[in-house]
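Schema walkthrough. Field components (list of strings):
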Amino acid sequence: MEILMAFIIGILFMSATYLMLSRSIVRIIIGTTVLSHGAHLLILTMGGLKGGSAPLVGENASAYTDPLPQALILTAIVIAFGVTALFLVLGYRSYKELGTDNMEKLRGTEGND
Amino acid sequence: MINFLILPILIPLITGVLLIFANKSIKLQRWIAGLSAFLTVIVAALLVQKVRNDGVQTLNLSNWDAPFGITLVSDMFSALLVLTTSIVALACVIYSFKGIGEDREKFHYYSAVNFLIVGVNGAFTTGDIFNLFVFFEVMLMSSYVLIILGGTKIQLRESIKYILVNVISSALFVISIAYLYSVVGTLNIAHISVRLSEISGVSQPGIITVLGVLFLIVFGLKGAIFPLYFWLPGSYYAPPAPVMALFGALLTKVGVYSITRTYSMFFYQESGFIQQLLIILAILTVIAGIIGALAYWDVKKIVIYNIIVAVGVILFGVATMNIDALTGSVFYLIHDMIIKAALFLLVGLMAAIAGTSNLRSMGGMIKRYPGLGWTFFLAALALSGIPPLSGFVGKLLIVQGGFSSEHYWGAAIVLISSLLVLISIMKIFINGIWGKPRSFETENSVPYRKLMIAPVMLVVLSIFYGVGADFVYPYISQAAETLTNANIYIDAVLKE
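Field assembly_structure (string):
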């Protein structure tokens, strides 16, 4: 199971890198979401998958699943969600103000002689 | 166990929330923001004194015992940085009263500043690696707001790059934490340190080196070390002066703090690869920063590149890892936060008076603004480390530590760098402040006297910090002692 997850995470990182290297802002933003999904899956996998029963006191099992990675992803997902929302609004607003979504045209030259 | 050390996080948080509801009245906002910033400074100063008297302070949130819950830890290093952050925040808030413009003030500017301080103070205080990530995000979210606020074309363009870089580095941070967790199975910084020393006592597994390099990339992106600083000059150039001062003084320093903390706690027993890497990168950072600072003719850009130089100098001291150099690094870190904030505010004021930040169209400001000219002169001398001003002691100790651990090249480059820093900053003084007086179209609309309060406050503080080095030295050396001996920190957190 961990091996399969490792491949999935690798593919997610690969697609994220490809998307983020493109010129269009929307593609880049999608790339960042895919990247954060990959990172979240990685946390889950690193805690160990299917290690035992649910981590509740009444279960009386010999082994329990580690609940901490799940709490961590929950926090990380919320943060990634907020940043993505902000990023999308920013992308839209800057498209309206600057008239382009092409990163090649967004180089700055202020302060350069 | 005292609740005191959460106050520098809690006061700005409550203030930030209150200010959201007070956005109709600018006057009320200014009063609340100013008073709370002042209160934070007092609380932080009391905290420093408490740590001085009673040693490392810890607080287990919700009464979960140390390795299981989230622990807040205030050792001298973090307490001093919290104090400096609060002082810089107070100065920037005072400058903002006249310097940021009413439009921004109406749109939650002070709330965003307060949330930024929550993030920075939290990152300095927390003793939990995932909590560090959360506070990083709090800080970054408010910095996104501050960099966009105003919505001018340059701000929109640069904030896209800024957010993209930080989103990627946050994802890398999560990945590094995941790897670390799979190796040690804990998130408490003190507990991680114990576990890592158990592992590396038996053998030297390569995974620790991998973790060290990953953390170096993550914090290096925030702290602007050599190959990863490319985003900084453009992004910091966009926002107005007080925001630039907050960013330049605080955000990169959080990255530097995190590198120092993780290296002194986690990777000090590592085989030496990371230390070598850090030394080389620190030296390259100094060189790259110097080249930028000398090349530009734009006042903001020159000061921005000086941030990079300072990051390199501090990290060189940290990488050397002996008590002299670490004391010097802590000393220089605090000096740099104060003096960079002062310089950014002064440079912002010069740009506001001249209507442009291009040095070629400035000149002769000392005729009409002698206060500005001499304050800038003192700040410039302090930055380059002329005795008895504040930069001197820190650099002296760093160089001394570099020589005693036989890193002659590095120490020599740090020495030469301070000369070149002096040249780069004197270029502003000679071309902008000396010379033939010019009249500027925009100068009469600038409330010059009121804007001078904050930078003068910071420069005076920096002079006292340098002249009174004997008085502050015990505090600094207590901070460096905790950094060289991880057991002080570990004992305080785990054995209570």
